[in-house]
Amino acid sequence: MNRPLTTTYLILVYLFLYLPIAVVVVFSFNHAAHSMLWHGFTLHWYRVLFHDAALAEVTLHSIEIAVLAATGASALGTLAAVSLFRYRFLGKRLLDGLLATLIIIPDIVTGIALLLLFRFSDVPLGFWSLLLAHITFCIPFVFVTVSARLSAMDHNLIEAARDLGAKEHIIFFRILVPLLWPALLTGWLLSLTLSLDDVIISYFVTGPSFDILPLKIYSMVKLGVDPEINALCTLLLGLTLILVIIAQTLLRKKQ
Prior knowledge:
With 255 residues, the protein is mainly alpha-helical. It has 2 domains: 1-42; 54-254, MetI-like fold (Orthogonal Bundle), CATH 1.10.3720. It has 11 helices and no strands. The chain has helices spanning 2-27, 44-50, 53-86, 92-104, 107-120, 127-151, 156-163, 168-197, 200-205, 213-221, 227-254. The radius of gyration is 22 Å and the shape is globular.
């Protein structure tokens, strides 16, 4: 008797989560500019999107920032996790707690704090301020992901490598990195998604000379949701699914 209730509950949950996304995808093919009624199938809005030079430039800005931020955050987050896992030093627990706390701090607080930091440091608002901000809020997510993988790893592997005379860099690149590969890929993809999606922190730390896609979309939807935005969101969704499929394929081959 519980099975029908469980099935109904799962269906309602999935509808709640994915129905809005399905609406965006469907109406990106709607032959109407400002209507919630179906007026026929068309690819017009995708053609408009591909001929929008300003939007293409902003999209390239977002991809550039996201890739660099994900790579930088993955490197720094991994080093932090490995350092806290392997070594003992003053302030270890404090650093562990601070990195975990950054995840739950409201974005508006992080954005204002970074804005004040850049102002006091005379860092001009633009590409570099945005990149540093994105690396900052992505590091904790990589740190947590890699730390979880490290906690499940056999500690004796490192000790065996040290007994056999392996240097620190050999242990890191030949033992830890291959074992942490799934967590590293997961952290990189998570950071990439967070960077592409961020609005609040980016709003505070970007300058007038460098715009990114989330802020551009935010400014566009103030006048109403244009079908071109639906087409753009559909393409971003497709790109995300492709990245997930590639990641799962690589992880299966690695296993």
